[in-house]
Amino acid sequence: MFKNMIVYRIAPGWQAELAALEEALAKAPFQECGATQEKSSGWVPPRGEAHGLLAESVGGQWVLRFMTEAKMLPGTVLARKVKEKAAQIEQQTGRKPGKKETKELKDEAKLDLLPMAFTKQGSTWVWIDREARMLVLDTGAQGRADEIVTVLVEALPGLSVALLDTQTSAQAAMAHWLKEQEPPAGFSIDRECELKAADESKAVVRYARHPLDIEEVQAHIQAGKLPTKLAMTWDDRVSFVLTEGLQLKKVAFLDTVFEGQGQDDGGFDADVAIATGELSKLIPDLIEALGGEGRTELSAAAAPAAPAQDDDAPF
Question: Each residue of 220-238: pLDDT tens digit?
Answer without folding.
Answer: 998 889 999 999 999 999 9
